[in-house]
Amino acid sequence: MESYLFPFDSLICMLLGISFTVWFTLLLVFIIVPAIFGVSFGIRRVYMKSLIKLFEWATLRMERGAKEKNQHLYKPYSNGIIAKEPVSLEQEIQEMRRGSAEPEFDMSDIFYFCRRGVESIVDDEVTKRFTAEELESWNLLTRSNYNFHHISTRLTALWGMGVLIRYGFLLPLRMKNYLSDKVHLMCYRICVRALTAIITYHDSENKPKNGGICVANHTSPIDVIILASDGCYAMVGQVHGGLMGVIQRAMVKACPHIWFERSEVKDRHLVAKRLSDHVADESKLPILIFPEGTCINNTSVMMFKKGSFEIGCTVYPVAIKYDPRFGDAFWNSSKFGMVNYLLHMMSSWAIVCSVWYLPPMSRMEGEDAVQFANRVKAAIARKGGLADLLWDGGLKRGKVKEVFKEEQQKLYSKVLVGSSEDRSRS
Amino acid sequence: MGSTNSTLLKIPNVEVLMQETGFSPAHIIRLHDRFKALDKEGRGHLCPHDFGAIKELAMNPIGDRIIGAFFSPGKETVDFHTFVKILAHFRPVDKDRPKEPNSPEPINSRSNKLKFAFQLYDQDKDGKISRDELLQVLRAMLGMQVTDEQLESIADRTIQEADLDRDDTISFEEFRKSLEKINIDHKMSIRFLR
């Protein structure tokens, strides 16, 4: 019996050995070497095109399947579940008063607030920004599809194959690559290829120069990799524990970055001082800052924290927009941890995104930090095709400030009391 | 994307719900998704804290009262059925519905919408809006922007105009009468998309 097994054993070993060598060579030739030299084979673009065709076919298949069974396809509500009236408080009250002479309090005034309140229960702007964007078509990742359903054997088989490819082939490939980081630009480029990231850089003549601050909208930690593979930056951020901490410490050895302890972050003057010292030194790399303060789901740009805009140097805005069809890059840190997120990222089809370098901006005369921040934010939102929101990214976790409620109360009282003052005067 | 039937089957008594409220299957599914999104801990019901997490609602001067309207007296949780039934108040009125004499009034009738608004004023649910209750609502809507005297004069005037039987409170009938001319359907309806 033993002699029976023996030849098989060595055969298997030989096969394994050969396949491993082949695999490794392929790895070397197609991924690492080009990364070193910054050359692209264009394979990824072909990959991307074929993926798109595949997704469209899958979508059509699902639609047909649903029609055969005479059922409605549940289209995800990317535009909201209700149509909100764009009428403001003043307009509404004036409408209601049209019959009577003076605008005074009426029992029906409460309807406005009531309706707005219930509208926000059904659908509100902020919660939408913090859940991953829903897709019109399905990209064969169960995570993007809320109602995975057995439509046809072919589709399921395709999905199964997709799983095999992603977890059995792409994932180990990427793990291997991702863990072997040593040299700065080269290692970022390897990462970029590892994620099968297809990045289109626009307007590279506006790339950030030394002695400035680079400001970008934030969707995921991958933003850093994407920007850093096209230029050297000094990073700013909190010291993290865990996997992120290890990465941070490794990065510091390569380049002078600015890491803060959590307690230091509270001291805004200290932060501002360190940043301005770094910027003043012309030889130091431009600082990369994400002023939103947290990851947003890439459909909008939220309020920029004004700290980075107070320093008074040139700001180089950068807009990053991910194509959600290939893999959702948004990191919901209150739901998923870092490792979980990385797993998701590594086993997506690809990361496709566009990076636009906008022309540098400086603070103008008579403009304060907040106005400057809003101006930069508007420019980034416009370029990236994202909605420009006034809301604070901190709303992901914190409570609404009382001041917002007061705004509503002020508005209403102005309509009522302001007009009665006019009456008493006349 | 997926067919609607599988999700609908997961919701208990969904046929009854659709009939009572008049929502279409697509609406029910979206409301169910919304319910699940609000129910962050996945308990299957909502508590006032879950509503409080909605930022736009927290900003609303009468946000607390609206949240209160979802919870029947004594109950601390709201299940999906109750959630949908309350939201059904805000469906636009069905103009082409045949008038069946024996069927109960639909949830989104003019009268029921008015009742919903009435309970926002009438917090102790005694069927009347007292002067105090009116003052409380005014204070909530105006905050610290007006003085006490201004508030009192507004309340006095409102009661004077609406209170027909001179008992210094506003009953539901008086409330209804004072709002005769208002287009309730327009003010108290939300347009649900297909």
From TrEMBL, chain A:
Pfam family, one: Acyltransferase
Transmembrane segments: 20-43
Listed GO MF terms: glycerol-3-phosphate O-acyltransferase activity
Pathway where this protein functions: Lipid metabolism; Phospholipid metabolism
SMART domains: PlsC
Family assignment from sequence similarity: Belongs to the 1-acyl-sn-glycerol-3-phosphate acyltransferase family.
Subcellular location: Membrane
Domain called Phospholipid/glycerol acyltransferase: residue spans: 212-323
Name of the protein this chain belongs to: Glycerol-3-phosphate acyltransferase 4
Main location: membrane
GO CC, any one term: endoplasmic reticulum
SUPFAM superfamilies: Glycerol-3-phosphate (1)-acyltransferase
Domain of life per record: Eukaryota
GO biological process terms, semicolon-separated: phospholipid biosynthetic process; triglyceride biosynthetic process
Keywords for this protein: Acyltransferase, Lipid biosynthesis, Lipid metabolism, Membrane, Phospholipid biosynthesis, Phospholipid metabolism, Transferase, Transmembrane, Transmembrane helix
The keyword Membrane appears for this protein: yes
Automatic annotation (TrEMBL), chain B:
Taxonomic source organism: Cyprinus carpio carpio
GO molecular function annotations of the record: calcium ion binding
Any one GO cellular component localisation term in the record: plasma membrane
Residue ranges constituting the EF-hand domain according to the UniProt record: 109-144, 150-185
UniProt entry tagged with the keyword ATP-binding: no
Protein known as: Calcineurin-like EF-hand protein 2
Any Gene Ontology biological process: protein transport
Location in the cell: Cell membrane; Cytoplasm; Nucleus
Protein keywords: Calcium, Cell membrane, Cytoplasm, Lipoprotein, Membrane, Metal-binding, Myristate, Nucleus, Phosphoprotein, Protein transport, Repeat, Transport
Major location category of this protein: membrane
Lineage: superkingdom: Eukaryota
UniProt family annotation: Belongs to the calcineurin regulatory subunit family. CHP subfamily.
InterPro entries: Calcineurin_B_homologous, EF-hand-dom_pair, EF_Hand_1_Ca_BS, EF_hand_dom
Pfam families associated with the record: EF-hand_7
Keyword check for Phosphoprotein: yes
